[in-house]
Structure formats: C-alpha cells, structure tokens
Amino acid sequence: MLAVHDLQIRVGARTLMSGVSFRVAAGDKIGLVGRNGAGKTTLTKVLAGDLLPAEGTVDRVGELGYLPQDPRTGDPDMLARTRILDARGLGTLQVGMREASERMASDDADVAARAMRKYANLTERFEALGGYSAEAEAASIAHNLSLPDRILDQPLRTLSGGQRRRIELARILFSDAETMILDEPTNHLDADSVVWLREFLKGYKGGLIVISHDVELVGETVNRVFYLDANRQVIDIYNMSWRNYQRQRVADEERRKKERANAEKKATALQQQAAKFGAKATKAAAAHQMMARAERLLSGLDEVRAVDRVAKLRFPKPAACGKTPLMASSLSKSYGSLEIFADVDLAIDRGSKVVVLGLNGAGKTTLLRILAGVDRPDTGQVEPGHGLKIGYYAQEHENLDVQRSVLENMMSAAPDISATEARKVLGSFLFTGDDVLKPARVLSGGEKTRLSLATLVVSSANVLLLDEPTNNLDPASRDEILGALAHYEGAVVLVSHDEGAVQALNPERVLILPDGVEDIWGRDYVDLVTLA
To answer: Can you give the pTM of this predicted structure?
Structure first.
C-alpha cells in the first residue's frame, strides 16, 4: 500500500529526517508521534504526494485518503453532501440525475426524451457504484460526525473551518481508501464523535497512519508506533501497541544513556593511555591505534535524546483600558436562508473571563470573527470601549499571512518592536536561527499555533479572543498555554472543546449559542464543554 525507501526530508537547510524506510500494509495502524515541529505533518504531506522529498522514494498502491490539518480542496460552490458522495463518484451522478429528472418534465418532447435516456444511464451507473445503500452509509458517517442535513445542504464556502474539516473526514472515511493518513482527526469533533471515530478506526481493515494528541484514540487503535526523533533525525519503529511502546521507549532511552556512558568511560581511558604512550617514540603507533579506537567507540553511538524543548508562554500585562472595553448588541448572522444566531448581546468588562459554548455550527467561531472585526454582523453592532486592544487567535490561523515569513508575521503584529526583540520572543516559542525566515505556509499546525500565540504575546492586548487555542499542541505545550491563561490579567473570550483549557481560564460567565443566553459559570456547564 505504501513503501518508503531511504527518505530524506529537508525544510530549507534544516534536515528533518534522513535514511527513513518503512512499509505500510493492510491492517497496519500506525501512530506517528514526536514533539511539535519534529516534522510529522511534513512527512504526511510527502507520503500523500503533496510535497517532494529531498531524497528517496514513496511508492503508493491503491487509493489513499489524506486528511491534512487545514483542508482547502474541493469546489467551494459544491454542496457538502455532494463532496462526501463524490469520494465514490456518487455525488456528481446524483446531481446529474436530479437535473435530468427536471428536464423530463419539459413540454418539448425531444428534450424530455433525451433527459429520460440520460436519467436511465446515470441511474445505472449510480446503482453500479452502490446507489442508495452507499448514500445511506455516507449519511450514517456524516451523522456520527455531527453533520446534520442543514450543513450537508450548504455550499462548502459557507461552512466554518471545523465544519469543513469534518466534511473532509467524512469523505475520507466513506471513500473505502486502502490507506488513510489522518492528521489530528479529532480536532473540531465533539465527545460523541470522538468515541465513534475510535470504534470506526478499530474496525478499519486498510493501512492507517494517524497523528493525534488524543491519547485514548491512539491507545485503542494503533498496533505500530513510529517515533520521529527530531534530535537524531530518524524514525524509530516499534511494532507493538501504544502502551508497550511507552514502556519500550523509556527502556531504549535508558539503554542509550548507559551505552554512551560506558563508551565514554572506555574512550577516556584509551585517550589517557594514548597520551602517555604518545610521549614515547617507540609507542607512537600504539597510541595512534588507541585514539582511533576511542573515536570509533564514540562515533558508533546514537546521541542521547536531548530533553524536548517546550514553548515558554506568558501573556504580557494588558494595555490600560476603560471599565468595559468591548460591547456588542443585537448581533445576528445568517448564511443565505440559514440563520446562525440572532439577537446576541455581550459586554466584556476589564479582566473578565467568558467562555462561549454551543454545538458545532452554532456560530461560536463566527461570533469571535465578528467581535474581532474580521466579519460584519447582518444586524447589530460591536462597540469598542476606551483603550480597546484586541488579540485574536483564529483556529484556522487566518490571522497569519502564509506568504510572509515567521519573522515578518511577528513584525507586522507589533510594528514597534525590533527584529532582534522579535527573534528573542520567537526563540521562546522554539523558532530559532533560519526557522524565522521560513514562510508561514510550510509550518505544521502546531508551529502555526505557536506563531499565532507568539503574535499575541507582543500585542499587549487587553481583550483576547481565543478560538480553540490548544488544538495541534503536544501535552507539554498545552500545559504552558493553560498556565499562561490562568495568570493573564486581561479579559478573555474563549471557545474550546478542551475541558482543561476552560478550567484553567476559571470563567465567570458563559454565553450559550445560538440562543445568546448568558449565565454565571458553574460546574454544571463543565460537561457541556466537550459536547459543544
């Protein structure tokens, strides 16, 4: 299904991995792991054929379904339902059948006759591909991913980033692809959908490569683990379950440490002896042999894995502002005939903490975009208070200019800081050296998250609008963000499926969409976070 031979992947002058070879066969369920920025997403793009490797080959046999972190494929005017069904060639056929059916009612006998023949032809092809049984299967997958008919009957261009991603996930799961590569498939899924996806992947018969920070999903589904070691630039392959891998990896790290310590001890002894022998002409040859042996001992060892660095995040002291820096009244938003929300009022006081809850598609992201000034409401208005300075984190990273470099994005977020100061802040977010010159478009989801957060740090914002800020982050980086949230003195409006993020914020109020109901935060709302 997938055969990788002697692969080398580079980003600019930086080598992410080299000498990588492996095969993915039917029944292989591989968890691809490694710290943020190690190259996991870049590897999946190479495997899917979206990027070319610096060296080596990737051979693909059979259909491959690839879910990137930010899917942008498909005709934006196509209905979501058609996009899913077209994974097996059914969607476009169904559209043609519908159009032929309408023309069959024509008063022109020739037009009606041609339409009848076309309808019969399309129906035959539709049924040969599984027909209405396959359509029911697609509908079941969509339902389990919380995609109701009102979303399926919308054009792709009207959907939120989370809805768009779930459409692509449904399409891939429906496609019957022999191999699937899923990059963070649980992003934007509610708790019930995550549980359903775990069961689906457990029963999947093809080859699977999955990147996920959902430990339960990885623990229950994978039977092989590929650990991408950013320090050694290799992939360590563990043909075992997730739990056995965790134990084995700790043992491997301990073994490397012991092997290196023993080798260094022997090499030091040889070097000291060689120094003594080297002073005597009669023993110069022996001294040379001892030095050569010491070098071989050290060169044959794997480097001990350095401790993975973690982004250091502290939001700055917010700029001074009035008592109520942000207000909104009578906000409503619709896409065509579909009403997202109506008559929403909100007042954000200085230093207040608000969490926005609602089912997928209830308008949470849309509300934050309106508050940030990215979108306009259909009715109502947003009223900035005295001294308002907004920092907006967009879940799809739309706040980043992907054609500009990491450094240029930082400089545009805070024009008053110098390049040296910007580099210092970026360094704390693990962007060092030439990394800051990379265009934002080549960054992984985790790296884009870190860059977006870095721009907030230099913004001195007094109101943060955060839309799923912990998506795509490894556990250590997530903990950093939660710690920063807990200590931030400014106001925060948070949208998140992450219960830990909401608890770290310790909100005072909750806004429930699409009804716009506002309430005092209480423990009763905690269970709604993962369902929202």
So the answer is: 0.70
